[in-house]
Amino acid sequence: MASERLDVLVVGAGAREHALVRSLAKSPHIGRLIGAPGNAGVEDDAITVAIDAEDLPSLIAFVERERIDLTVVGPEAPLVAGLAGQLRDRGFAVFGPGADGARLEGSKAFAKEVMEAAGVPNAHAAVFTDHESASAYLRRHGAPVVVKADGLAAGKGVVVARTMEEAESALDECFVARRFGTAASRVLIEEFLEGEEVSLLSIVSGDRILPLAPAQDYKRALDGDAGSNTGGMGSYSPVPPVDDALYRRLVAEVVEPTVAELVRRGIDYRGVLYAGLMLTGHGPEVLEFNCRFGDPETQALLPRLESDLLELLWAAARGEALPSAVRWGTGAAVGVVMASRGYPASSSKGDVITGIEKAWSLDGVEVFHAATRRDADRRLVTAGGRVLTVTGLGATFAAARARAYEGVAAISFEGAQYRSDIALRAEEWEKQQRS
Asked: 262 lies in a domain?
């Protein structure tokens, strides 16, 4: 990249995008850094423009008018809708796959097809387009099962059903109540897998792969993995069970054959390939693929990153060679999501948030905004379900957890909720290794 400075647009409004903005801002190559639409935290670190992440015509017009050098697309919806491909067709560099590659997340049935063709281990699933045949299949096979809406459902279209009653209720939500709209026009009933979950994100530039550090996400709303599925209530990195040998195995058995299959299909993938994995007793199995940085995994990964993120994204967006490895800081990162009252079924908006400055002043604590905004009096208020991610960094998981929860304790808003057990297993594993 030499000494050039790049104008960068980050599309999205969540904590993931705030983490991307903060990491990109560290690069000596950054020129203008713009968030669309951003949030109250992004406003503190970048220029923001009031363009919704799913308003593709307005985003394209802005990139053309401002001659943006690099567009980084955070959320899945604009990627599935084809934003990256439309911008590339106009000659602009974009970090994010085109609509063909984004189908890995946009259609779970398509992802299964790719995995089967690539020989990637994954949970067996059957696909249904009507309630009657899905229910008949369920009665034959019994529970536990996992019921998944085929399309995008903001991280909430998956139900781990341990009983027949829960499974039937999930099918009713999809086919009768139409809770997920067209995303559930097809529904997958998938075998239930047990084990340790791991998120492995890789930067992909065509046929080149740069795996990132593993992370673990917490999908359930309540401590002990109870409650409803959410978009994610916290994350940590690295993941103790994933040693060097297992890491190489995950790359070789999952990431490399998947990317090779995409290349075979003529898909020029430039972005993040996110593999959600279950480490079962008989080996790793893929639960899902996503086509973008994970949220909340990004808020645990990027604070540990010592490589220049802009250089990595710029190379991938242009289909160029990637470095052989990424530099990471030693120690651990633990990110805790603070959500508003009612989440995930609903959310409370307009509640005043206090204590951000105090949390920021704590050593080893970073606060990433998600659903936040400024009201008419310039007070910071909630604006949706997942409000903030508070990330603690430390030499050990114990230190990182303590800092994360110290940051959480400094922040308050009416009805705030969060899990108290993020990375607890990692801390306990750490203690066992010392004993």
From this structure: no
